[in-house]
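note to self — DONT lose this again. spent like an hour looking for the file last time. sequence + predicted structure for the chain T wanted, 185 res
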Amino acid sequence: MGKRVMKIRTTPIEGVAIVETTPFIDHRGSFSRLFCDDELRVVLKSRTIKQINHSCTHSVGAVRGLHMQKPPHAEMKLIRCLKGGVWDVAVDLRKDSPTLLQWFALELTPENRCMLVIPEGCAHGFQVLQPDSEMLYLHTAAYTPSTEHGCHPADPAIGIHWPRAITEMSERDSTLPLIDENFTG
């Protein structure tokens, strides 16, 4: 396995990237690299992973997000689906960005072995497409409640086209603010 097994693709939103992982497959099954500091240096730059989280969401149609942290605890997230399937979304909330309020989505499954990279200033959320979907999140900053930020997943100013009707959200997510004309990023 001396060759690179991670291919990084850009998206229309600066800093949002797709990491495609090439597995090693033989008669026993498969082996996949989930993280490699050397191969991901192009997106991580001088950042380091500070926290790793795992979630399991039971219901198809449930949405988690759209979450982020503001400076000084802004974070890059690297997101993978370990079980099931989700429709993963990044929303650009950087006030000086040419893609402000634009979103990018990608289906993540264990089978496609993709990871979505979400930079600082972009909110993250996902919708569950298969029951009991499990997600792995790698963060470049520790969770700091005082810097939590986000926006409502059904905000018409963003206009995310969720693939299914939203069937469930946490109380916290359902009370996230809408973007308005006073939005400051």
